[in-house]
Design a protein that fits this description.
It is an enzyme of class 3 (hydrolase). This protein is α/β, with parallel strands linked by helices. 46% of the residues lie in helices and 11% in strands. Helix 1 links the parallel strand 2 and strand 3. Helix 2 packs across helix 15, helix 3 packs antiparallel against helix 14 and helix 6 runs antiparallel to helix 13.
Amino acid sequence: MAHDEVDPAPVLLRTEGRAAYLTLNRPRAINALTRGMVRDLAAALDRFDDDPAVAVIVLTGAGERGLCAGGDIRAIHADAVAGGREAFAFWRDEYRLNARIARLRTPYVAVMDGIVMGGGVGVSAHGSVRIVTERSAVGMPETGIGFVPDVGGTYLLARAPGETGTHLGLTGLPVGAADAILCGLADHYVPSDDLAAFTAELAGADVHDAVRRYARPAPEGELAAQREWIDTCYSAGSVEEIVHRLLTHGAPAAKEAAETILTRSPTSLKVTLTALRRARALDSLEKVLEQEYRVSCATFGSPDLAEGIRAQVVDKDRNPRWSPARLEDVEAGTVARFFRAGAEGGGLGLVERGV
């Protein structure tokens, strides 16, 4: 997507020994993805996955704040306000990249240190070796900006234990290392102080041997102890019933979750719940990405996306005016339109042609 780059090389590539290192290099934007970065990553994966001299591909983020804060939503906002269609091309390239990462033959080590949100999950959590640290904050916050979890996020969340994925998808709340591992968004915990040595060792060591040397038990998380109310409340058939169960359950954390959900876009909440339930029945990441692409393109025409980004990122007044403003005013027919085949934007071609 069009955006003025302040970093001369937004994706850095280097090889050392048997490893290829890819570094997202927009630290001032917490390495938010532009379309150019997505294309650079895709080209690098094509190159290194076919190189017999490369035994492992390692993804990291520049700076101290995180691997990747997501897609460049300021650019998406500008495109939506202008009535453009660049977002469709960005999402098409991005989702194809997500599928490519999941199907790599070469081990792909994603270092999910710091903030890993939205599109950051897409370039990391589909990898074969996913590393989190004590600084990791992993989440899909889309309902807070009038959007819906994408980049294969509904595939991952739909397969999380019990209803933990529904909880994360509707609230948009991030989780730390242990809970990311519990939910299937990550594999191993490595203390941040050991990351430099760990990633350097991958240049000469077998990736699994290196993981065994550096991985440690993750500090205790929160979700395992909350499974009772999460599974009970989020198994309801509608967002309204989920909120009711959360408010009346009695657990303080359940009430807090309900209060968080009620600040999110009502339309996004209902579409997200439908997307998650439908994703459970789809048997491949590619099929889920095709569904997400239809939903994303439909969401682009919804007033809540531009309004949510305005409130959270552009004006930062944190006071989005959702339309409609109440869950009960979002009609079933409105939700169904987001999933209609042949929606604007076309498809990705992943299921028909492979990636």
